[in-house]
Structure formats: C-alpha cells, structure tokens
Amino acid sequence: MSPRIMVIDDEKIVGDMAKMSLEQEGYAVETFTSAEPALERLAQEKFDVVVTDLKMKGIDGMEVLRTVKRLYPETKVIMITAFANLDAAIEALRAEVHDFFPKPVKIKELKTSIQRALGK
Amino acid sequence: MKIERRIILSNTFNVALLVLIGLFAIQNLNLLLTKLRFVEIADDLNASFLEMRLSEKNYFLYSDESALFEIRGKIGKTMDSIEAMKNDISRAIGEDNFRTLTFYLKRYSDKVEEVRRKGGSEQLETQLREEGKKLKEFSEAITLLERQRANEIISNSKKALFYSFFAILFLAVLMSHLISQKIVRSLREIERLALAISEGNFGKIEKITTGDELASVIKAINFMSHELRNREEEIIQSKKLASLGILTAGVAHELTNPLNNISMIAQTYTELYGKLSTEERLDFMQKVEGETERIREIVKNLLDFSKPKEANLREADLNAVVQGGLRLVQNALDVSKIETKVTLGRGLPHVLVDEHQVQQVLVNLVVNAIQAMSPGGELFIATRYDKKRRSLEIEVKDTGKGIPAEFLPHVFDPFFSTKDAGGTGLGLSVSYGIIKNHRGNIRVESRVGSGTTFTIELPAYKKEEEKER
Ligand SMILES: Nc1ncnc2c1ncn2[C@@H]1O[C@H](COP(=O)(O)OP(=O)(O)OP(=O)(O)O)[C@@H](O)[C@H]1O
Ligand SMILES: [Mg+2]
C-alpha cells in the first residue's frame, strides 16, 4: 500500500501543487485548508506524514503537531511557515517535529524529507 | 525698555513734577509776602501823606507857619523811611513806580520849600495842593494795584495747585495703565502660546516688541516650545522607525505566501511539464497571474500607508462631512443591529479638511465600534466646538467590549490588531496619520466592559481667527 500523506495549509495552492507533485512519487495525498477537518480525518484513518503550515486561523500548526504527536505518535509531522522565527522552530523541535521548512518551499527538499520520514 | 526702569522713570517724572509745583508755590508765596509787606508800608505812607495834607490845609486856612515845618518834618521822615525800605518797595512795585513816587514826593517837598520861602500866594497854594493831591493819588493807586495783585496771586496759585494735582493724578494713572496694559497683553500672548503648546501645536510668539522682563519670559517659552517640537519630532521619528520594523515584519509575512505559491507553481510546472494538458498549463499560469495580483495589492496598500495621499483641503461644514460619512456605514450599522444616536453641534465654525479622508477616518472608527459591539449595542456620534481651544470635535462613542489598558497605547500602531480574521491593524494608524496631517488630534478613552470613545479634534478654519481680531 502506498504511503499516505496529508497536507494542511490555508493557502489552497500549496496543497494543490504539493498533491500533484507528491502523487508523482506514488504517495496517496489528501489536502486541507484548515486544521479542524484535517484532525477529524486523522481520527478516521492513519497517515504516515502530515505536512502543516504553522500560522493558520483557528487551530494553528503548532497545535496540530502536538495533537498528532499525542494521538498518533508514529505519524511524522513536517512544518512549513511563511515567517520563520527561531522561537517557533525550537518549540516545534521540542514537540518532536520531523522537519521545519521556511517558505518558499523547495518541493525537492520536501520530497527528500518525506522519504526520510518514511524510513527509506 | 525694562518694566522696572519704566516704572522708576515714571515715578521720577512725577516726583520732578511735584518738586516743580512746590517751587512754584514757594515762589508765589514769596511774591505774595513782598506784596503784602509793601501794602503794609504803603498804608503807613498813605497815612503820612494824609497827615501832610491836613497840615497843608491848616497852613492855608490859618496861615500857620508851623504847619509848614510840620510838613517838612514829615516829608523828611517819609523820605528817610522810603529810603530805608527802598529795596522792599522797589521790589514790590518796580523801579519805575518807585522812582515816580520819590519824584512826586520831591516835587511836593520842593513846593513846600518854595511856599515857605515866598510866603503863601494864591497861585502857589493851588500848585502845592496840586502836587499834594498827585502824590496822594499815585500812592493810593499803587497800593490798590498791589492789593489786587496779591489777590490775583492767591487765586492763580490756588488754580495752579488745583490743576497740577489733577495732572499728576492723571499722569500717574495713565502711566500705570500703560504699563499694566503692556504686561497684560504680553501675558495674554504667553497664555495663548501655553494653551497651544498643551494642545501639541508648538508655535512661538513672533513679535517680541520690547526688551522688558516679559520679553525674556517669552524668549524662554519660545525656546521651550522649540525644544518640545524637536523632541516630538524625535519621538515621532523613533516611533516611525519602530513601526517600520513592525511594518517590514508584517509585509514580509504577507508577501511570502503569494511568493511561495508562485514558486511552488513554477516547481510543479517544471516537474510535470510533459504530463500537463494545455488546459492545466493555462490554469497554472492564471494562478501565477492571480498571485502576482495579490502581491501588487499588498504593495499598493503599503505605499498608501507609508505615503499618505496629499490632502485635498477645502473649507467645509463639519456636520455635513460627518453626515456624509455616516451614510457610508449606515448599511453596516443596520445589518449589525446597532442603534445610532447623532448629536450635531449648532453654529459650528467651518473646518479646512479633505472631506473624503475625514470620512475615511469616521468609517474606520465606526467599523471598529461595530466590531466591538454585539447586536443591540448603541453608538453615539457627536460634533461640538471648543471655543477656548478653537477646535472642533467629533466624538465616536460605543458601548462595546472596550480596550484593555495594556493595549490602549498600541491601538494607533500600524499592524496592531486583536482581530484574527480580516484585521490588518492599519485602520487606526492610517486614521491617526490623516488627522495629524490636518493639524488635528485623535485620542481614545476606554473601559473594559463598558465601551470606548474616540475623539477627533480639528482646528477651526482660520477665517474664524481673523474675525476675532
Ligand atoms: N471601538 C473599539 N472597541 C474595542 N477595541 C477597539 C476599538 N477600536 C479599535 N480597537 C482595538 O484596536 C485594534 C486596532 O484597530 P485598527 O482599526 O487599527 O485595526 P483592526 O480594526 O484590527 O484592523 P482593520 O482596521 O484593518 O480592520 C483593534 O484590533 C482592536 O483591538
Ligand atoms: Mg479597524
């Protein structure tokens, strides 16, 4: 079965592009533009990797990270953010983030990071 | 001239005047004394002359030779006493009159001598009488004249003293009035400046008319005002720098998202180029165009913020401006079920404003108020004129949730917002810029739970000042 990847970003284009590109690698990709429905979906099915934006309205990326790590410790979380600052990075590391990317995201690097997350 | 010196001068002047009047009075009194002394002497003389003439009569009536000797004796005595008091007399009646008097006396004495030598003929008798009469008449005439003179001197000095009393009084009052007038005028200028400074208009008093003590006070205040203005500019400058920091951070964040989108579209496009259908390729490019548009919008807003458009100032009725602004938000108020109470001040002076900009400020304030209230809230809008500060006020008062004290100093900062969705935090900072540009002021008072009041102050149009002058 192909690895399942979830992408959460309130910028719809991010999800769209990531999905197209990641599907080329044979991943099953689902995208969301806010955290609430994404967390609901996670409750239904297991995902291998969650890629989430940090700053979002409502539940933000940091909370997604913590929730995922608490409920589904095996799922890896990769965080992307438009406004990289050190405090957020440290906080994310403490919460066991797998990787941390500032925007603009290099899709190749994202793919390498996902591969590593999947243990390949 | 220093006020102190001015007062000393005016006092000196008054004292000098008093001394002059005193000297004048003393001189008059001396003159009066001389005159009186003469009158006294003249009375004695007149008495002697009367006696002479009586003896003369005796001689002619009774041909009494001894009467002639009596006359001679009296003449001699009178001449002696006149000679003795020559100074007093001539001073009183003048050299000429004195000479005439002695001349008449001499002629009379000569006649008496002639009568004694030749014996009393009819012709000599008339001549002697004639001379005696002349002497007596002359002496009586000058006595009368001197009496009149004495009276004149008394009444003249009475008048002079009376008028000079009023002259001094008038001068003293006038001087102190002039001096206090000047002080009061300067103090008013200072008061006006102090008031202006307290309103944040750091002007100065241009005309420093004299070099008195108040001039140095005015100079000090001008200096203070100048310093305050410099400080304010420094503060504004440092605030600008601070907001520039906030600004760049905000802009960086706003711009990064569309840039990231474009970058990701480009990467995906490159990667999947061969696999994409024509429609998909066009769709990609349209998305790029859309993101570019987003960036352009952000940059435009940024420019608007950093370089506020030149205000297009026109003389306007503030109430009309406010009513126009309210029309723009009426729909929003209705939808949010906010009840609005408008109290427009009557007979307000005009203002010099860019109508659209002031309305934009009003809209910002009202929108904020709406966002702070729940349906059923009340909004109070009022205009009024503060005559003393010569400024008009627009008050926007809501009954919303209020602003916590720790946020109050930041509400006018760019990008300060407590609204997660749709709040850029630019509304109030743009409003602040607009009102400052109008040489006005905007301030806020708020209590958590009971509501917030924003007050805009705008200076009354200059024409009003001209009218007052
Ligand atoms: N009437 C009000 N009552 C309570 N809070 C207010 C009021 N007006 C302003 N504020 C506070 O001040 C902040 C800044 O206001 P400002 O208008 O500058 O930005 P904003 O309203 O958040 O964003 P925007 O104006 O772009 O919609 C608001 O986020 C709010 O916290
Ligand atoms: Mg606002």
Secondary structure layout plus pairing:
The complex is a heterodimer of chains A (120) and B (469).
Chain A: E1 4-8, H1 12-23, E2 28-32, H2 35-44, E3 49-53, H3 61-71, E4 76-81, H4 86-94, E5 99-102, H5 107-117
Parallel strand pairs in A: 1-2, 1-3, 3-4, 4-5
Chain B: H1 3-62, H2 65-84, H3 86-93, H4 95-118, H5 122-198, H6 213-272, H7 278-306, E1 314-316, H8 318-335, E2 339-343, E3 351-353, H9 355-372, E4 378-386, E5 391-398, H10 427-437, E6 441-447, E7 451-459, H11 463-468
Parallel strand pairs in B: 2-4
Antiparallel strand pairs in B: 1-3, 4-5, 5-7, 6-7
Helix pairs in contact in B: 1-2, 1-3, 1-5, 2-4, 3-4, 4-5, 5-6, 6-7, 8-9, 9-10
Adenosine-5'-triphosphate binds at residues 364, 368-369, 372, 398, 400-403, 411, 416-419, 423-429, 452 of chain B.
**Percent range for β-strand residues of chain A:** 15-25%
Structural class of chain A: alpha/beta
- Cα distance, first to last residue of chain B? 27 Å
Class of the largest domain in chain B in CATH? Mainly Alpha
| Average pLDDT rating of chain A | 94
| Count of helical stretches of chain A | 5
User: What strand order characterises the main sheet of chain A?
Assistant: 2-1-3-4-5
Main attributes?
heterodimer; A: about 120 residues; alpha/beta; Rossmann fold; five-stranded parallel sheet; B: about 475 residues; Four Helix Bundle (Hemerythrin (Met), subunit A); Helix Hairpins; Heat Shock Protein 90; 3 domains; five-stranded mixed sheet; about 10% strand; binds adenosine-5'-triphosphate
